[in-house]
Amino acid sequence: MALLTLSNIEIGYPGGFNLWVNHLALEEGRIYILSGPNGAGKSTLLQTLALLNCPRRGEIRVGDERLTWRGAQLRRLRRRITLVHQNPFLFSGSIQHNLAMGLALRGIRGDEQRRRIEQSLEAVGLSEFARRPARKLSGGETRRVALARALALRPDILLLDEPTANLDRETVATFEEVIQILPAQGITVVMASHDPGQPQRLGGELLRLGGGRLMPA
Ligand SMILES: Nc1ncnc2c1ncn2[C@@H]1O[C@H](COP(=O)(O)OP(=O)(O)OP(=O)(O)O)[C@@H](O)[C@H]1O
User: Fold this and answer.
1) Residue located nearest, by CA, to atom 13 of ligand 1
2) Per the count of CB atoms within 10 A, which of 22, 23, 48, 190 is most buried?
3) Contact at 8 Å (CB) between 29 and 182?
4) What's the pLDDT tens digit per position in 11-21?
5) Residue 28, burial from CB neighbour count under 10 angstroms (0-12, 13-18, 19+)
6) pTM for the complete prediction?
7) What is the DSSP letter of 89?
8) Pocket test for ligand 1, best of 18, 43, 193 (most atoms within 8 A of CB)
9) In the chain, count of helices (H) and strands (E)?
């Protein structure tokens, strides 16, 4: 069964923009690359996949559960999905503190919290950075910390909004190495990207947006 299924979805904003998704089923352990020109609706679709942007019409299912967009169900299902923005916001304080906050909010403290922070910083190659102030990082480092912060939460679905845009080739390669192994850890990835080589390098399935709709594969 698919992890997340969108059927006959229409998403938009007052004033014009409209995106139509006839059918999209995210399967476990895959990488999906969301492509399309500027303004095609990639970020908008990611917000919907993160269960943050309620569509005008259509149905979303998480596993076999139909999303009601209400109360405890919405809060529970949102915890299974993590969205990393293109220009992520880090809180003041150390990098460790940034990772700890999300975990503490979910009741993960003590040894388990420390273990997760160590593992996820190691995964993005920033083990040495734990005590550094988060607000004094380069753009590329900030994105790596944001990725580590998301990984520490161990989501079923990780949504990445252009994680490698405007990064040097070496840093792109570091990101791709981290992303590539996520399916083996049971994490399904959907990432927006303008890099035409990325679907092949990551073994990802291409999802194309254009003309106000998700195009058939
Ligand atoms: N909060 C909002 N209110 C109204 N319109 C919005 C809002 N956010 C985005 N839009 C509009 O929706 C359309 C899709 O925007 P979106 O950011 O999803 O595109 P994108 O494919 O991610 O673009 P890019 O590649 O430039 O990041 C654009 O026309 C944008 O102006």
Assistant:
1) 39
2) 190
3) no
4) 999 888 999 99
5) middle
6) 0.96
7) -
8) 43
9) 7, 10
